[in-house]
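Proteins fold reproducibly. Consider a sample protein:
=====
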Amino acid sequence: MSDMNTKDFVIGTLIGGIIGACSALMLAPKSGKELRGDLTEGAQSAREKTSEFTTNAYEKGSEWATLAREKSSDLARNVSDQSTQLYDRVKEATSNVKSLNGNEEKTADELADELSNDLDEAEEEMSESVKEDVTELQTSVEQQANR
C-alpha cells in the first residue's frame, strides 16, 4: 500500500509539473515560433529527466534487491550453522545419557542440566548473531537510501 502511494505521488508530481510548465509557456507573451521552440525544449527536458529518474530507480532497486538477497543468504547460513552446532550438542548429550551405567559419576539429571545450559548459551549466541545480521542489513539499506 505504501509503495502504491509513493508511486502515485511521484506520477502525480510529474504530471503536475508538466501541466504547470505547459500552462506557464502558453500564458507567456511570446511569438508562436518561440513558444513552439520552448515547448519542444521543455518536452525534451522532461523526457530526459524522466528517463534518468527511471534508470536511477531501476538501478537502486536492483542494488537493494541484491543486498537483501546477500544479507538474507548470510542470515540463513548463520542460523543453519548454529542449528547444526546445537544439533551436534544434543546428539552428544544423548549419546552420553545412553552410555551411562551404574559406575559413572554423572547422572542423567546432571547431563540434562549441562545440555540445558548448552542450549541456553547456543540460543543466546544465535540471537545475538541474528540481531547483528539484521542491524547490518538495516544499516546497509539506510546507506543505500541516502545515496
Summary: DSSP finds three helices and no strands in the chain. The radius of gyration is 31 Å. Residues 60-146 form one domain.
